[in-house]
């Protein structure tokens, strides 16, 4: 039996954060990727994961026509089949129900492109600029039933520059996401829940 924690990563798109997690889980890392799961069969991250030797699966949300519980009943199956100890959301663009979150309470992580509790939800970079913030960034937190809530496990800060657009700010934040998320996952898989602050 492997001593490594098994990690399932949920994506909806290109999977850049997913790949930084996969690439980090080597050597003395306390975790290994066991599954990359998407609600979108066309997600670019699926091919990247497969090329990296990670098992992939797809559960398309569209046939369920808004029945989130039925969708999640199917979504949970490959996660359980893979024996996942930890679930990482990495650009998974579906809001999960209380029932799903409760099933993985205390072992599900998410990365969000703002300094939570600021700017939950979407359009975080534009909202930070509109508010005149001098600092922006990203957060990794444990997932709870409340959207973008839950105990903070890490944050990375970036300065907001005078000529920033939502796109340029997003690019700099994403660079920090790729540093922060693997760092937090390594600590979390080893049992360390102490929040880390970068930048």
Molecular structure report:
The protein is of the alpha/beta class. Helix content is 34%, strand content 23%. The protein contains 6 helices and 8 strands; from the N terminus they run βαβαβαβαβαββαβ. It has helices at 16-24, 44-51, 68-81, 98-103, 124-130, 166-189, and strands at residues 5-11, 31-38, 56-58, 86-89, 108-112, 135-142, 152-159, 196-198. Strand 1, helix 1 and strand 2 form a beta-alpha-beta unit. The mean pLDDT is 96.
| Tally of individual domains | 1
CATH topology: Rossmann fold
Spatial strand sequence of the major β-sheet? 3-2-1-4-5-6-7-8
Helix content class: 25-40%
Output the CATH class name: Alpha Beta
String of helices and strands: EHEHEHEHEHEEHE
Low-confidence stretches: none
- Sketch the major β-sheet: 8 strands, mixed
What is the first-to-last residue Cα distance? 38 Å
Per DSSP, the total helix count is: 6
- CATH architecture, by name, is 3-Layer(aba) Sandwich
Strand percentage lies at 15-25%
**Radius of gyration from the alpha-carbon trace, in angstroms:** 16 Å
Structural class: alpha/beta
Q: CATH superfamily, called what? A: Formyl transferase, N-terminal domain
DSSP, total strands: 8
Average pLDDT confidence is 96
Shape: globular
Protein name: Phosphoribosylglycinamide formyltransferase
Catalytic activity: N(1)-(5-phospho-beta-D-ribosyl)glycinamide + (6R)-10-formyltetrahydrofolate = N(2)-formyl-N(1)-(5-phospho-beta-D-ribosyl)glycinamide + (6S)-5,6,7,8-tetrahydrofolate + H(+)
GO cellular component, one term: cytosol
Function: Catalyzes the transfer of a formyl group from 10-formyltetrahydrofolate to 5-phospho-ribosyl-glycinamide (GAR), producing 5-phospho-ribosyl-N-formylglycinamide (FGAR) and tetrahydrofolate.
């Amino acid at each position: 039996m492997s001593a490594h924690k098994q990690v399932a990563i949920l994506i909806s798109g290109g999977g850049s954060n997913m790949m930084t997690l996969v690439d980090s889980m080597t050597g003395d890392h306390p975790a290994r990727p066991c599954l990359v799961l998407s609600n979108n069969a066309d997600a670019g991250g699926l091919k990247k994961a497969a090329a990296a030797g990670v098992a992939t699966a797809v559960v398309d949300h569209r046939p369920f026509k808004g029945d989130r519980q039925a969708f999640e009943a199917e979504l949970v199956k490959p996660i359980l089949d893979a024996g996942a100890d930890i679930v990482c959301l990495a650009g998974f663009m579906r809001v999960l129900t209380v029932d799903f979150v409760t099933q993985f309470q205390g072992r599900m992580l998410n990365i969000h492109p703002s300094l939570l509790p600021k700017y939950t939800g979407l359009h975080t970079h534009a909202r930070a600029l509109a508010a005149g913030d001098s600092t922006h960034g990203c957060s990794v937190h444990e997932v709870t039933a409340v959207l973008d809530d839950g105990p903070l496990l890490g944050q990375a800060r970036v300065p907001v520059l005078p000529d920033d657009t939502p796109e340029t700010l997003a690019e700099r934040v994403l660079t920090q996401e790729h540093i922060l998320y693997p760092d937090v996952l390594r600590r979390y898989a080893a049992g360390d829940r102490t929040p880390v602050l970068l930048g």
